[in-house]
Write a structure and sequence with these properties.
- Helices cover 37% and strands 14% of the residues.
- It contains 4 helices and 5 strands, in the order βαβαββααβ.
- It has helices at residues 24-36, 50-58, 79-90, 105-123, and strands at 15-19, 42-46, 69-72, 75-78, 140-142.
- The protein has a 5-stranded mixed sheet, with helices on both faces.
- β3 (69-72) and β4 form a beta hairpin.
């Protein structure tokens, strides 16, 4: 069952993160970002939600659920580039991870893809997207339960 978009729609000043809503690693990553988003910059949509699928199609993103996507300023980023940008946007001390940009993209993405291919086996999965904490619900564009 898909719910209507939550209270806080994205604006020009928000970045959107698309993620696999049933992946335990992805959900832990979303919680990590939420807890450190001091500027209230990020909004979230699972790739399984109607809005997640719509945004993925709009930005011509792969339907592969094994990656995070960051949409910012009308541009979409994926895999390790998305993660590095997110870390930089979270500010200190997390922005220090942006130095990993010095590692060649093919190597970064090989590691990223290895984790992505094995994420369910290593971290598990849920039957449905979890309901976010009440204080975070406004940051989710839509969720599928």
């Amino acid at each position: 069952m898909t719910h209507a978009p939550m209270e806080s729609a994205p604006t020009q000043r928000n970045a959107i993160i698309l993620y696999d809503g049933v992946c335990n690693l992805c959900n832990a990553s979303v919680r990590f970002i939420l807890a450190r988003d001091r500027k209230d910059y990020f909004r979230f949509a699972s790739l399984q939600s109607d809005i997640g699928r719509t945004l993925a199609a709009q930005y011509d993103l792969t339907p592969d659920l094994s990656t995070f996507f960051l949409i910012e300023d009308g541009k979409a980023y994926e895999r390790s580039v998305a993660w590095l940008k997110i870390m930089r946007l979270l500010g200190k001390p997390w922005s220090a991870f942006y130095l990993l940009k010095l590692v060649p993209g093919p190597i970064r993405n090989w590691v990223y893809d290895l984790i992505g291919r094995n994420r369910y086996r290593w971290f598990g999965r849920q039957d449905s997207c979890p309901v976010p904490k009440a204080e975070w619900q406004r940051k989710f564009l839509a969720r599928r339960v």
